[in-house]
Amino acid sequence: MKKIKDIFLKKQDICHEVERQNPYEEKLHQYKRRLISDGFYEKKWQSIKSEYTKINLYGIGMEAVGESMPRLMRMVYDLYENKLRSLELHVVLPLFPDTYKGGVFNDRALELIRQYVYIIDDSNIDFWIYVLRNHKGEVNLNSFNRYKFREAGYIVTKIGTPIIELSSDLIVEAEKKFAALHIEGEFVCIHAREEKEKQANYGEDYARETSISNCDINSFQQACFYLQQEGIKSVRMGKFESNECTIPGVIDYANQYYDELMDFYLIQKCKFMVASNSGLWVLPGYFGRPCIIVNAVGMTTGWESCVFMEQNMYMPKKFWSEEEGRCLNLYEVLDIVNECHVYYSNFKEKKVLLIDNTEEEIYEAVKEMNLRLDGVWKESPEETECMRKYRIIIESWYKSHEYAKERKKYGMKGYTINESKISWSYLKNNLYLLDVADVLLRD
Description:
This protein has helices at 2-21, 23-37, 40-51, 65-80, 107-113, 125-134, 168-178, 196-202, 204-209, 221-229, 253-256, 260-269, 283-286, 330-340, 344-349, 359-373, 381-399, 405-409, 424-427, and strands at residues 55-61, 89-95, 118-119, 155-156, 187-191, 233-236, 273-275, 291-296, 307-308, 313-316, 318-321, 326-327, 352-355, 421-422. With 443 residues, the chain is α/β, with parallel strands linked by helices.
């Protein structure tokens, strides 16, 4: 409720400031207040009340794609699954953390999601202020925090089966903009996380703390050359990207064509996405497109309410223990990530260095992904056996841990462990990951 109150106060302050500056705006506000006093909003409220059995208000953070979209998609999925009653009106109030300096992570996202759920925005906030001032007791606030955190568990879908889609009007608009990119045939979206956006919206300290998720866009070069040979273009995604992409033939959409609507259109249309450990990788699954995550860090949290798709793959960074003088095996990686999450200072305290994937490793993984999607990948007996051992380790660790520490810290229950397929082209060259003592693998 504090957030709602803050919005009310901010709205009042803005109105007072406008009134002092512009007498014409004052007349408009007088007219608006007269309409309200004459019952304009009251009639609208009574109309809504007669149409729905209950009006529910939910607060959902709108500060980042990797945080906001899973919460919004969980709500959409709950509507699909009838966990939210269709005869009730479900209203979303955008919220923002106190430390956040920006606005809605993507304004066009509101247009996209509005097809599925009712969202309070600039066009209707005056009405809802009126409602909450005069009819607060008639609005159900008991589930206000239902989507405060990302819910444990995946949203399961299949390739080509989207959870959400752009409307026909949005597609028409996007196709006109897409023509400027001169893309014919298949293309792949690529993204290497940088920290400029975090610096702008969260400050230097947070950007530094989460910098272990960064990677270099130019480490995708061999992969992009391979895709070009296959007749597939590469489109660099992102926002506030400062590192120059020097890879010949890559369309630097992030710096030359960026558009909030096109973020969704490109991902909906691409063959697959290659993304680093950032929030952007959550989008492809919601549009029914597969993704390979390179330089992955999070293994035990960060997957909540994201899409599980059989074709998804990942490739982790290497976790080098300075005390042991070696890379950590898979069980140890799960342990250390559970302790440190994605925070630089935690890994530094544990004396663990994170080593980026090489250009060759990214190329091999992208090639594997492309071959799998084309249906020509052949699984060897060695791969079958190693993947079996890999699954045993993952499942054994999961069974022996009651909660994810990062989730428990914020009062959340449960785990959503990384269920994506690890790239075989990576695992076969890093079989030390499977060197886990048998005693740890017992039920």
